[in-house]
Design goal:
Distance between the termini: 19 Å
Structural class: alpha/beta
Largest sheet: 5 strands, parallel
Oligomer: single chain
Strand order of the largest sheet: 2-1-3-4-5
Helix content: 40-55%
Strand content: 5-15%
Order of helices and strands: EHEHEHEHEHHHHHHH
Number of strands: 5
Length: 236
């Protein structure tokens, strides 16, 4: 997998380069110190996965993610901290395939890159649920005013109506951060069947990955924002 590193701290980039240097299936093809350089390198080098910081000079990671996902097939993984909740949400809406905490274990980081490169989204259930419940549908609203009730737009309603009852059920469970294996257990079906339903949801709703399914589900009010008793894993 071809990896592009984007962070304004040289030591951080150097650390990742050393880490990936011992991984035979990973190759760091470039480094960028800001979002503008990241966009330029993404278009020129065509990496498979981009590790993207958020707070950077010239162009931040959110703007860079939006530009990159609109013009390439690269998967963007946001590097963040627990106090970057709003930034992470905006990054997901900009097309990121997931996010990682900067203190992620090296083995988990390598696994995350492999997961993203294979076309899956990376969802850290506990953090992702909290972020999306707090932010989806409220980014463009007045923070001093009342929070509007979530509900589908006309286009979202039309797309949701194309889902079968079982696909809608799978969508709700995906939105709660459940893995395919956990959904299979909950619905008493095989993981392959769940994977097929998830693929159908992606195609019918016109979204690129699992993270975007979650965002759409919360924006459209398919699931509520109350605490969910289920637990999930980071793998789809």
């Amino acid at each position: 997998m071809r990896v592009l590193l984007v962070d304004d701290e040289k030591l951080v980039r150097a650390g990742f380069t050393m880490l990936f240097g011992v991984e035979p299936l990973l190759e760091v093809v470039g480094e960028a110190c800001d979002g503008a350089e990241a966009v330029e390198l993404a278009l020129r080098l065509r990496p498979d996965v981009i590790l993207m910081d958020v707070q950077m000079p010239v162009m931040n990671g959110i703007e860079a993610t939006r530009a990159i996902t609109a013009q390439t097939d690269a998967k963007v993984l946001i590097l963040t901290t627990f106090d970057d909740e709003e930034n992470v949400l905006e990054s997901l809406q900009a097309g990121a395939s997931g996010f990682l905490l900067k203190n992620t274990d090296p083995a988990q980081l390598v696994h995350a890159i492999n997961t993203a490169a294979e076309g899956h989204a990376l969802l850290a259930p506990e953090v992702t649920r909290q972020i999306i419940r707090r932010g989806v549908g409220s980014l463009e609203t007045d923070p001093t005013g009342p929070t509007p009730e979530p509900g589908p737009s006309e286009e979202q309603r039309r797309l949701l109506e194309t889902l079968t009852e079982r696909e809608r059920e799978v969508l709700e469970l995906v939105a709660h951060g459940m893995s395919n294996h956990e959904i299979a257990e909950a619905l008493f079906v095989g993981p392959a069947t769940v994977k097929s339903h998830v693929s159908a949801c992606l195609a019918k709703l016109g979204v690129r990955d699992r993270v975007q399914l979650v965002v759409l589900a919360f924006e459209a009010g398919v699931v509520d924002r109350s605490p969910d008793p289920t637990s999930g894993s980071t793998n789809p």
